[in-house]
Structure formats: C-alpha cells, structure tokens
Amino acid sequence: MVFLALVLVFSAALVFSSDISEYVRLQKRLKVLAEDCAEAAALCVDKKASEASGALVIDLARGRAAAEALCRKTVSSGAFGKDARVSVIISPYGSCGVRAELVFSGRDLFRPAFLRLDSFSRSAAYEWIPQQAR
Which domain holds residue 8? Predict the structure, then answer.
C-alpha cells in the first residue's frame, strides 16, 4: 500500500514538473518574441516628423503592423503549439521608444484540475537614448 502511494505521489510530481518546464519554455519564447516585436516596431521611424522635431519619432501604425506580421509568422510556424493565439499591443514608451506587450492564450498548460492557466503575457520595451555631446 505504501509503495502504491509513493508511486502516485512521484507520478504527480513528475507530471507537475513536466508542466512547469513547458510553462517556462513558453514564457522564454514569448519574451524573446516580445523583444523582437519591440525592435521591429522601433525600426519604423517617421523620417519627416523626426527631421521636423529633431528627435526620433516612431510611426506606431507601421510599427504595430511590423510587430503583428512578425508575431503571425512566428505563431504560424508552430513555436507555441497548434492551438496558441498571441495578440500584440504596441504603445509608446518614454520620449522616443516603443513597448510591445504580447498576450498568449490557448490550451490549459497544467494537467491537474486544481491548476488552471490558459493565458499569460510578457512585455519588452525598446528606447533610443541619444548620446550626450561631450
């Protein structure tokens, strides 16, 4: 009887460990994708507005489109599983930067019935800071 109880406890621990590993892997992938989306959005500079103001001005509409295209390409490659959905939120950050927040939603990541996690988010920011004249 004790042996059976130990087998059940260790099996549950193994399942939970496997689920946590998958969750950590998805968190890392989402963080890398958030950083890539922020960089892609930050590269969309509005040249006319930047020249007029003398500071870097990011075109948020083009940046949002670039980030969404990158996100769509990555999700369609199967990096997050077949049932995953990732939405992108691009917003200004600081004086001349951009922030990308990605929200993952999909299947429940944990098998035990008392744990439920089917969505989480990660964000990254990219800001250009001009070098001061010496």
Answer: 2-127
Residue 134 lies in a domain: no
Summarised one tens digit per residue, pLDDT across range 100-133 is 999 998 877 777 777 788 888 999 998 887 776 4
83 C-beta neighbours (distance < 10 Å), count:
9
**Can you give the pTM of this predicted structure?**
0.81
What is the rounded CA–CA span in Å between residue 66 and residue 43? 9
Number of domains in the chain: 1
Distance CA 126, CA 116 (A): 32
Largest Cα–Cα distance of the chain, in whole Å? Answer: 79
**Is 132 inside any structural domain?**
no
Q: What are the tokens at 125?
A: 């920011």
The DSSP annotation for 51-117 comes to HHHSS--B-HHHHHHHHHHHHHHHHHTTTT-TT-EEEEEEEE-SSSEEEEEEEEE-S-S--STT---
